[in-house]
Structure formats: structure tokens, C-alpha cells
């Protein structure tokens, strides 16, 4: 059976949440981190109107589940409103409506293979130093300056 991959850009709708699921055979009975977030897939199309760049042609919210081992570290980087690119397997989930018992709701959900921060709304980026990297390579500023022809 073929597996379809869906890739989209969108904004995170609420603060990402990390949960720990019970261990299983694959995780050698160790609790597994699960990062849950919602991302708004927006269909923006270049506008013909002079007062706006894009028209919103509709979109939808996608519930994203990220099961990778680095889910805790990724959760620390992601913030509400941040623009991200998400890639993974898309599905439709159904659940009972909390406000109307007996009524079912459905929505788009995605098991993410990757989550990438899109830098359009980033104010700053920090990186932690690595002893091995700092003792064996030149500082990042050196590479940045060399790439820009400064030195």
C-alpha cells in the first residue's frame, strides 16, 4: 500500500504540548515523548487588489503528532504563532465532541516526519556550544564573514 506524504506551511495555533506515552516493545518499555500541536494550513493566493498582497482562499487546522526521540527538544523551540513547515502522513481523525456528548467531530491530523521552523517571523536564534565543535572548528562569525566577503 502506498503512503502519501503531505507537506505544508502554517502558523502554530497554540503552545505546543509534550506528553509521555507508555512504553512498548519498540521503545523497550521506556516512556515515549509525543509532541502535540495544531497548525493552520492557509491557502494564500496572490491578490489582484492593490491594498493587500494575498487573499485567503480558505484553509484548515491540522492536529500534528510528532513521535520522534527529540520531541522534547523540538517542543522547547516551538512557540504559538510561529511559522513552520510540517511534513508527514495526513489522515482524518474522529472524536466525541466534549460539548455535545454523543456527537462526533472530525478533522485533519498528521503524523509528522519533520517539523521545520520557517524564519519569516523569527526575531533571534541561539545555539548551544559544543566542546568538540568549538575546539575543532572556527567560530560561526568567521564563516558568516567569509561568505559575505568580509575578513
Automatic annotation (TrEMBL):
Keywords: DNA-binding
Matching CDD domains: SSB_OBF
Residue ranges the record marks as coiled coil: none
Entries under Gene3D superfamilies matching the protein: Nucleic acid-binding proteins (2.40.50.140)
One annotated GO molecular function: DNA binding
Keyword tRNA-binding: no
PROSITE patterns for the chain: SSB
Protein name: Single-stranded DNA-binding protein
Amino acid at each position: 500500500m502506498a503512503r502519501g506524504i503531505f507537506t505544508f506551511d502554517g502558523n502554530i495555533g497554540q503552545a505546543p504540548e509534550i506528553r509521555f506515552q507508555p512504553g512498548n516493545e519498540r521503545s523497550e518499555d521506556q516512556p515515549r515523548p509525543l509532541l502535540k500541536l495544531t497548525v493552520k494550513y492557509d491557502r494564500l493566493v496572490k491578490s489582484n487588489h492593490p491594498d493587500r498582497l494575498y487573499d485567503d482562499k480558505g484553509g484548515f487546522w491540522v492536529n500534528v503528532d510528532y513521535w520522534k526521540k527529540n520531541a522534547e527538544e523540538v517542543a522547547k523551540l516551538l512557540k504559538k504563532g510561529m511559522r513552520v513547515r510540517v511534513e508527514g502522513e495526513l489522515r482524518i481523525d474522529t472524536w466525541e465532541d466534549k460539548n455535545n456528548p454523543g456527537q462526533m467531530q472530525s478533522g485533519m491530523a498528521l503524523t509528522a516526519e519533520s517539523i521545520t521552523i520557517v524564519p519569516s517571523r523569527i526575531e533571534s536564534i541561539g545555539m548551544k556550544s559544543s566542546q568538540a565543535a568549538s575546539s575543532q572548528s572556527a567560530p560561526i562569525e568567521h564563516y558568516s564573514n567569509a561568505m559575505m566577503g568580509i575578513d
